[in-house]
């Protein structure tokens, strides 16, 4: 099992522990806001399972049917996670509306908050681990899972403050209002998550900062060539795809042109981890006198 798969499996275990703690908190208090927190944890468990399957599938090597690999499976997982977040938000809004129509006082609020707070601390630690490791290993599924957990942490903090105020003031109406706010917050998080993942599925180019670094590497390591143009990039999971046209002198031998390409590939891979590079060599009459000028 790879490091990424181990972390994904850990998310399932953490998700079940947090779900159990939050359900206990809801059972002790009867708070619909804490129920909303528990419902979001159900989504956490479901998405953690989906993430593990997606990461395991994405780790499979390229084959005849998938010559570029299976890396985009992680984006599909992230989109699914966004959809599940939206479904959870709708369920929470329904419970909040019912509680708003018939508000009731919260039972044992401080005990329930203590249990829920412990679950939130565990979530906060784990979301930090997921985001840091997901970025380090270029795993959009782990990063998406971590960001979702961070949304859960923020929601739980708001619930904690609101229920404490409800307990101190006796305003039971605060409970369903808090649940509705939690739902709106995770709706926004789900929308952001899906939009970012769709960008990966649609082969968006790398950020401009990364493109500038690649252009600089090409310009500095293409000695013997004339120019490079039509640079294209995309990200698929941990893999970065780079392709461009390299213009060389028409009388240059195939071996010389190939040596330049090898040198460029080594330099780009040293700058961009897990890069898959394709270079199309062209004679000088194909020069566009634009793009990347060789230093």
UniProtKB/TrEMBL annotation:
GO terms for biological process: intracellular zinc ion homeostasis. This is Protein p34. PANTHER family: MITOCHONDRIAL METAL TRANSPORTER 1-RELATED. Signal peptide: none annotated. Residues 11-202 form the Cation efflux protein transmembrane domain. It comes from the Bacteria. One of its GO terms (molecular function) is cadmium ion transmembrane transporter activity. Gene3D superfamilies: Cation efflux protein transmembrane domain, Cation efflux protein, cytoplasmic domain. InterPro entries: Cation_efflux, Cation_efflux_CTD, Cation_efflux_CTD_sf, Cation_efflux_TM, Cation_efflux_TMD_sf, CDF_Transporter. Residues 206-283 form the Cation efflux protein cytoplasmic domain. Keywords: Cell membrane, Membrane, Transmembrane, Transmembrane helix, Transport. It is found in: Cell membrane. GO terms for cellular component: plasma membrane. Belongs to the cation diffusion facilitator (CDF) transporter (TC 2.A.4) family. It is a multi-pass membrane protein.
């Amino acid at each position: 099992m790879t490091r990424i798969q181990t972390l994904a499996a850990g998310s399932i275990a953490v998700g079940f522990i947090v779900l159990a703690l939050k359900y206990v908190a809801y059972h002790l208090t009867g708070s619909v806001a804490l129920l909303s927190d528990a419902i979001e944890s159900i989504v956490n468990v479901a998405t953690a399972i989906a993430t593990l399957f997606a990461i395991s599938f994405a780790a499979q090597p390229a084959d005849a049917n998938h010559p570029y690999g299976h890396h985009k499976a992680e984006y599909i997982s992230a989109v699914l996670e966004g959809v599940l977040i939206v479904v959870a938000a709708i369920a929470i809004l329904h419970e909040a509306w019912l509680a708003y129509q018939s508000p009731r006082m919260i039972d044992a609020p401080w005990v329930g908050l203590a249990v829920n707070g412990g679950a939130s601390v565990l979530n906060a630690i784990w979301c930090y681990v997921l985001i840091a490791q997901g970025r380090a290993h270029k795993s959009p599924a782990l990063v998406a899972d971590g960001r979702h957990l961070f949304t859960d942490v923020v929601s739980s903090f708001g619930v904690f403050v609101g229920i404490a105020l409800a307990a101190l003031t006796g305003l039971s109406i605060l409970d369903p209002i808090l649940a509705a706010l939690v739902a709106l917050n995770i709706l926004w998080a789900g929308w952001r998550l899906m939009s970012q993942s769709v960008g990966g599925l649609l082969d968006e180019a790398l950020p401009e900062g990364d493109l500038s670094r690649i252009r600089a590497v090409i310009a500095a390591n293409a000695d013997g060539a004339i120019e490079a143009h039509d640079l294209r990039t995309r990200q698929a999971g941990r893999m970065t795809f780079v392709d461009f046209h390299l213009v060389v002198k028409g009388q240059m031998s195939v071996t010389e042109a190939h040596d330049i390409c090898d040198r460029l590939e080594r330099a780009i891979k040293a700058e961009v981890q897990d890069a898959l590079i394709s270079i199309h060599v062209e004679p000088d009459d194909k020069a566009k006198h634009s793009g990347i000028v060789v230093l």
